[in-house]
Amino acid sequence: MKPAPFDYARAESLDEAVRLLSGADGDARPLAGGQSLGPMLNLRIARPALLVDLSPIAELREVSEDEDGVTIGASVVHSAVEDGEVPDVTGGLMRRAASGIAYRAVRNRGTVAGSLAHADPAGDWAPVTMALGASLGVTGPEGRRTVAADAFITDPLTTVLEPGEIVEAIRVPRLSGTARWGHYKLCVKPGDFAESLAVVVRDPDRDRCRVALAGPTHAPILLDGVAGLVAEASGWSDALADEIKDAAGGGIAAAGFADADDRYAMNVHATVTVRAAREALSR
Amino acid sequence: MTSTTISVNGRTVTADVEPRLSLADFLREHEGLTGTHTACEHGVCGACTIMLDDRPARSCITLAVAAHGAEVRTVEGYDGDETMATIRESFKKAHAVQCGYCTPGMLATAYDIVTRLPDADRDRIRLELAGNLCRCTGYIGIVDAIEMTLAEIRGGS
Known about the structure:
By secondary structure, chain A is α+β, with helices and mostly antiparallel strands.
């Protein structure tokens, strides 16, 4: 399996990348770590006319931390998060998530922003960034804009990015010291894409509680009903687990996230949500 | 064609290549370094794992043009490396090699485990090996070999 032929250009600056990506009749793709796009090229699922390599652009590798959070450049790789080279403003959630993505050899090349922009519905970063209330800095021919992580992926392999636009950085807000989180990924083998992945972030000092769910067939969703229950909870109980499972089922069905008649999928997603909530409420 | 300059096992190589050429095929076909094996060619099996700037990476889903400026170390590039010599000796003792197809990738991952995670226990070794498939050994010998290497390095230091 070899890719179909394509042209290739190294972008030396963001402006050059945007210019190159805006050409090629809309058939250009940015290349960061290539750990999602590479397989798609080899399988000939993706057949772009032009690849624009973002790796020479130094500013995309920058990470900056301030009082309110951390800004992670688009070319920062998963293993940099895993190893704590990126300041962890989330009390360990991002490090946990990073360490469960594929394999070390993939994490050394694959980027956080590239994974989000590729928008595999079972990708690891979307539910994490959604639950954290993160946002993406996007730049393109019309200038810069900010997109909330929960509004970024609209369908499997589909984002709000317009032709010529690329993700420049990810902004992750700092959790307060009392915040707790839960992260539960169900996959058959370590490193696989998730069959189901739920992330719960409860930060009472910032008056925020969010629950996000990802799976293989639908864009990731927020489960507001579950978030309401987790926000109000004062501890863990079997009764609460049942309530959360019901609320998750309701949210999943309402969003069309899984087929309501598929009792296995419904159960898996609801159970994974319960387990993430339990971790958040048991810490 | 696009020019790419890569340090391969300490030797700088410049070549004009098709952009779609993978680093694995570049190493095998342009450099004659057939120790790097390709199997699944979509990043799952780990047979093509090499060191890219001292970190394990998949050479089948890394383009040769995107490795421009990088340092590559293949299974042929460990002459005089004591750590790799210990790993290889352990692989031999533990019968961690059968058909040999996965072995170059296994050695790269083993090298990463041994150097990055000196305190890794058996469970951690198994977890780290999840990205390298072997269809012969059942993994027991490979896990044994890495455990043996770590014990030897701990004992020696």
